[in-house]
Amino acid sequence: MHIVACNDIDPGQRQDECPPRPADPRGSFLHGLLTFGSLFGAGGLRVTNSATGTAFLPGCRNGPEDWRDWSEVVDGSGQASFGHDPDAFAEHLRDTARLTVEAEQSGSPVIELSVTELRHLLDSAERDLTNFLGLVPDWVSQHLRTREKPRTFGPGLLTARRRFVLRR
What we know:
With 168 residues, the protein is an alpha+beta fold. Helices cover 36% and strands 13% of the residues.
């Protein structure tokens, strides 16, 4: 629901991208998700160490659309920054991925896991996002009764499905 709320913007601000907002409450709430050409999702991937409760949260200006940063950690340069406030930072050290919760803070909590385990988590997130985006068209056709078809059935959703694929 968070991605829906992030894209619940008055069409007046993005008239070039979408038709007017429907009058019914459900259609109005889902309007941005179903019609915007590019979607925005505040926040990115959260990693939590269930044994310690330590949570690695993306900072400001980092969202699901920045998934390529994770590829840098597991397959690329070996490090990536995930926004600010918090200054989340991830790095690849030999066979370990170290996720630093607040890189600007001395003694910040970290989560360490194998690069293989991180890759599996990323693959799982990819499957979940892809499956979610694949279910949306059927859900919309069942639950949103409109006289006309959505413009290209949510170009943002269709492109998001391709953009969220984590593999190269």
